[in-house]
Every structure is written in structure tokens, then in C-alpha cells.
Specification:
Layout lengths: L16 E3 L2 E10 L5 E8 L8 H6 L17 E3 L7 H9 L3 E3 L4 H9 L9 H7 L3 H10 L3 H5 L5 H22 L3
Parallel strand pairs: 4-5
Antiparallel strand pairs: 1-2, 2-3
Protein name: Mobile element protein
GO molecular function, one term: DNA binding
Pfam families: DDE_Tnp_1
Length: 180
């Protein structure tokens, strides 16, 4: 489907959406503790992070060393202030996944007016949250590839293929460096 007549409409297979900065793409990503990509979802720039958390976590498939199904559930999720919502916290709780997600200021103000379930973000959680920079470093490693940083591919599937290739190379390089 061509959009040369209406530049405001993009076909769904392009994964491009209008945000404050113009037409953009958003990469939602889960990484392990060593900065290796585990799962990802590509959407238009107008899609918010909160709605994509479950889709990203559902994309995780880590093979086991021996026989058995791949591991699909992390022990803990560290996420930034773009991901807190009642639905996400309930989804994580139902699956037994611990969460370290700080609340936004507006949510804290709402909680003070209407007390509900307390969200503990004490000293231990703050120490854990310092490890979230690993995800940002993973993004930086992926975006060292010019084609990924610029989004030069028109179709989302081609863009995802480039990200998968870069992710595979990150996994290989990380394993080679840490092999005894």
C-alpha cells in the first residue's frame, strides 16, 4: 500500500508512527543482566511503553543448557518509569515475576489521595534499580550499527532482521569474551 498521496498515514507493516519528533519507530527490548537482548517488539513511535511490556516479555526464549523447553520467564524485571501500570504489575504478580519499577510522580500523588496496594521502593529496590543501565547499554551496542540507529529499512520485518543479526553478534561476542 503506497502512501505517496497522504504522508500522514503509514501502512502497518512499516511500524512507523507519528510522535513529537515526527515519524519514528520504537524498539521495546528486554535484556539479561549481561546486556544481551532477550526479546523485542518494534512499534511505531506513537505507541507507549506501558502497553508493550507484556508483548516484550512474551517474546523471551532462552534455551536451556541440557534438554527441556526454553526458559520464558525472568526472575525479576527492572523497568523505568515508562512501564508502571496496575495491569503490568498484576500480570507480573500472576506469573511470579518480581518487579523493580519506580512509580511516576502522578501515580504517587494519586496513591496519597486514594490509598491502595503499597508499592515498596525502599533502599533494596533502589540498589537493584541501579542495574537497569544494562538495558541502556544494550540499546547503545545495537545502535552502533548505522542501519539500526537510522532506521534505513522501510519494512519493519527487515529492520527487525537487522536487529536480530546485531543481537546474535552481541551474544556471540559476549560468550567468546567470557569463555574460560
Amino acid at each position: 500500500m503506497s502512501n505517496h498521496k497522504d504522508p500522514w498515514v503509514e501502512p502497518p507493516d512499516h511500524a512507523i508512527g507519528r510522535s513529537r519528533g515526527g515519524l519514528t519507530t520504537k524498539l521495546h527490548l528486554a535484556a539479561d543482566g549481561r546486556g544481551r537482548p532477550l526479546g523485542m517488539v518494534i512499534t511505531g513511535g506513537n505507541v507507549n511503553d506501558t502497553t508493550m511490556m507484556t508483548a516484550v516479555l512474551d517474546d523471551i526464549r532462552v534455551p536451556r543448557a541440557g534438554k527441556g523447553r526454553p526458559r520464558t520467564r525472568p526472575d525479576r524485571v527492572l523497568a523505568d518509569k515508562g512501564y508502571p501500570s496496575k495491569a503490568n504489575r498484576a500480570w507480573l504478580r500472576a506469573r511470579g515475576i518480581a518487579a523493580t519499577i519506580p512509580e511516576r510522580d502522578d501515580q504517587i500523588a494519586h496513591r496519597l489521595k486514594h490509598p491502595g496496594r503499597l508499592i515498596d521502593f525502599g533502599h533494596e529496590q533502589k540498589i537493584r534499580y541501579k542495574g537497569r543501565n544494562v538495558v541502556e547499554r544494550c540499546f547503545n551496542r545495537l545502535k552502533q550499527w548505522r542501519g539500526i540507529a537510522m532506521r534505513s529499512d522501510k519494512l519493519a520485518r527487515n529492520y527487525r532482521a537487522g536487529i536480530c543479526l546485531a543481537a546474535a553478534l552481541i551474544w556471540i561476542k559476549t560468550d567468546l569474551i567470557n569463555t574460560p
